Structures are given as structure tokens and as C-alpha cells.
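FAQ: What does a ligand-bound record look like?

Like this one, built around adenosine-5'-triphosphate:
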Amino acid sequence: MSNTMLQVDSLSMRFGGLLAVDGVAFDVKEREIFAIIGPNGAGKTTVFNCISGFYRPSTGRIALQGQDLAGLGSHSVAQHGLVRTFQNVRLFKHMTALENLLVAQHRHLSTNLVSGLFKTRAYRESERKALDNALHWLDYMGLREFANREAGNLAYGHQRRLEIARCMVTQPRVLMLDEPAAGLNPQEKKDLQGLIEQLRQQYGVAVLLIEHDMSLVMGVSERILVMEHGRPIALGTPEAIRSDERVIKAYLGEE
Ligand SMILES: Nc1ncnc2c1ncn2[C@@H]1O[C@H](COP(=O)(O)OP(=O)(O)OP(=O)(O)O)[C@@H](O)[C@H]1O
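The answer part, i.e. the structure of the complex:
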């Protein structure tokens, strides 16, 4: 389909004797908000790790706008426009909030040693742009006042927002969020839902989300894939998923 952003086919991942992901297939459209849900150990994070280049899948195809990604490392995958956050926030805790956003851009753009050494005009210009971009995202996330504070000393909710900002400074096409609501208070969860919708609307990103918080998932997602024991068991709109017997039994019924 022409507006498919991310395509995942026949994805499997084996760890020794354990088939952690088994025949997962789905696609994410341009600007779509798509969630993967399922009980603990269902294989959601493993799917994320395969897509984002942290694992090389045992089998399957992963393509971003038709371009094959399977087997590329996480750095290359990010350079293709697919970036992620982690279940447990991973920031450079001893760098300031601002530095985290600058480093993300340096790691993303291929730095040229010669222009860096001689601080050419083009180099200075790109440094200035990176700084403007970082400051924009600090403002956008309501973190400007913490620009010079060490990331590890920020409140947890702020660290989560900074992690999303760190993804956004690279102007991704797909933003992958691994349990972004974990550890947030009810107000922060509400703000997160607004933020996800706003990022899609203003920056045109597709969002792929793993989340246990059902009200966030049901409120924000256009389509949901449900996994159980590594396998996909349902895929559909929130309404369809909510009333799917297998899903109720496998997952929602647990709560
Ligand atoms: N690196 C690994 N080596 C071996 N087994 C792994 C590895 N990573 C995950 N697993 C196993 O694969 C299965 C799927 O785990 P995964 O973390 O993908 O599930 P999940 O759906 O993300 O769970 P949760 O909701 O608890 O985060 C689990 O049985 C897990 O123990």
C-alpha cells in the first residue's frame, strides 16, 4: 500500500529453545498511531528490539518505506528515521538535558572530522542549527528551565519527556515508544496522550507504541496488535480489540 510507513512480515526471534516471537506481521501507516499490547513476556519488547536493530531477527522482513532494515544495526536504523525510547529511561544521566539533545544530533549526523577540527563555517552553522533545534525541543517539552540540569537529576516524568525529545531532535519518520506511561502519574499520562497526538499532527511521525496502560492505548491508538506467547492473536481498532474474545481471555481478562 502506498501510505505504508513500516512493514513487518513473518517476524520470528528465537533465544535458544525459546521462540520469543513467532510469525508476527503488521504494518504501520504514515502518521498512524499503532500499539502492541499483550501480557508480560508476550514478546512485545523483542519485536521492538528487532525493528530498531538491537536484535537481528531469526526470520522475517522489516521495511521502512519499502527499504529493508532487518540486520542493520540500531545506529543505521535510527539514521533511516526510526528511533525509540526504552522501558527503563536511557539518558546520559551525567550530561545536562541540553547536552543529551546535542549528543543525539551528533550521533545522528555523520560528523566530519576535518570540518570539526578546523571549525569551518559549515561546521559552525550546523552546530548553531543543532543548538536551536535542541532549545526548540526543550521548549516544546516544557523543559527549558532544566536545560543545564543533569538529566539524572530531573523528575522521572521529565526524564521521560526528555527521552522523547531526544528522539524528536533527529526528525524521525517513526517514533517507537516502549511503555512511555510506566511510572507516570495520572496527569502526566493524560499529558502524554496529548503529546503523542500532537507529535503526529505537527511533525507527521508515525508512532509505534508498547503500553500496558489500557486507557492510554485505547485512547490514542488507531490500530492495536495483540500478542500472546510470541504470537499475534488479534489486530484491529480499539473497539474491535476491546470486544475480541481471545483478547479478553488472554489479556484484558487478567486485570
Ligand atoms: N535476550 C534474551 N534472551 C533470552 N530470552 C529473552 C531475551 N529477551 C527476551 N527473552 C524472553 O523472550 C520472551 C519475550 O520477552 P519480551 O521482553 O519481548 O516480552 P514483553 O511482551 O515485552 O514483556 P513485558 O511486557 O514484561 O515487557 C520472554 O520469555 C523473555 O524471557
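Follow-up question: can I read anything off the structure? Yes, for example: Residues 188 and 218 are 17 Å apart (CA to CA).
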